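Appendix B. Extra example for self-study. Work through it before the problem class; the solution is given directly after the inputs so you can check yourself.
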Amino acid sequence: MTDLIQQLKHGIVTESAEATERIARDFAALVPEDTVLAFHGDLGAGKTTFIRGMARAWAINEAVTSPTFNLYTLYQGSRQLIHLDAYRLESGADLDALMIDDFIKPPWCLAVEWPERVADSLPDDAWHLYLGIDSKQSHTIRLGT
Amino acid sequence: MIFAIESSCDESALALFDPEKGIVGEWVHSQIDLHKEYGGVVPDLASREHLKNFFPLLEASEVLAQQKKITGIAVTHGPGLAGCLALGIAFAKSLALAWDVPLCGVNHLRGHAYSPFIALHEHDPASYAESFKGLLPHLGLIVSGGNTILFEITVEGALNVLAETVDDAAGEALDKGAKLLGLPYPGGPHVEKLAATGDAKAFDFPKAIAPRNERRFSFSGLKTSLRYRIEKMDDAELEAAMPDICASYQSAVIDQLFGKTKHVLEVDCYQSLGLSGGVSNNKSLRAAMERLAKRYRMPCLIAQPKHTGDNAAMIAFAAFADPAGTATDQVSIEPALRVG
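Solution. Structure tokens for the complete assembly:
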């Protein structure tokens, strides 16, 4: 399984949303407890799709919807998943104002879309995933070092 | 009279509702201008603004003059932004204590669900209970930036969700589409304006990602397909095709809402159709739903424009019309509250 981490560091190309979800499921098992994951990538790059795959691995079976308007969604499975979209946030101060700390329960995973908006508030040990689109069918997923 | 407070997101709003008359007053402190420069909602700013807004808003309203007639306070307790909800609830609790009246928490989404009935009540308050009963079972659609919910209200008055979005909300699909096209925030109305002069058949966007009989909405693929489409165009081409792209894209969003609603009407029997939420201001969507209701020979109730965004009138009305959906024991913030 650690091969997956190596492969992700080099970048994995996926041809469909289903394939992205499958990789995310396997990846979820390798994410340490209480980790912040930062998802970099443009509109339509597959960020929410990837996070949905991780949710399934943690036995979260409800719909994983875009939190753009509601800013964040909490899911409880074998691990707590906090799906945050910083698209409409201006700064780290605004992140604090969301009072997420009041709702967080270990073991958790905080998945942040548009992390560059709140870069200063993310911990140094956060994992960074970069999602890109090459052409109509292929998306790349790369784990930053 | 019921006094209501709403502060789940952008708007600080107050309303007074008299069961014998209807909405007697509503006051909104719109924060849209504040957020425009940031391209969205800024929660910290929003929370602080609610605190700044509520007292001047209360003083500017007629609420204090009518205070002796107030028999209860209703406040939105979820879903919404935790900080914003907390401020509204603290404000409501202090007034309930000072005026010695009971407090209840109203589900913001149930407020939207019942908002099309506000006008029905206002038309003839005395016969509302009877006329409402005659409209059940009711099929309703809430469409906004954060929600896309098809639901029913049964003859017994229970609210059941029939379909929800599995990814983006319909309003979000329109706003994000607008963003991809380089239009200002909030983009939905700009798309609608440009679409008015365009040809909805000019571009082929995926109409319904989920099969028609599956009771779920999905708009995320639509946004991705718009992205691929415009990537192939240069600036001049895009500029020239803008009305056609907007018309085709908007029509793909509406077709899915229309198609799912129609499918439910084909399968089950309803007495009325409802439409509410911010996107219900879209003229093409209103026309589509009215057409559908006409085909099935049932009244189409659409929330009045002033009650489509976040407003306190619908919170006051839901406290009156949907007491089963309110929380009375202990009112606390519930940011992730579900509709049913």
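Self-check: The mean pLDDT of chain B is 91. If your reasoning did not lead you there, revisit section 3.
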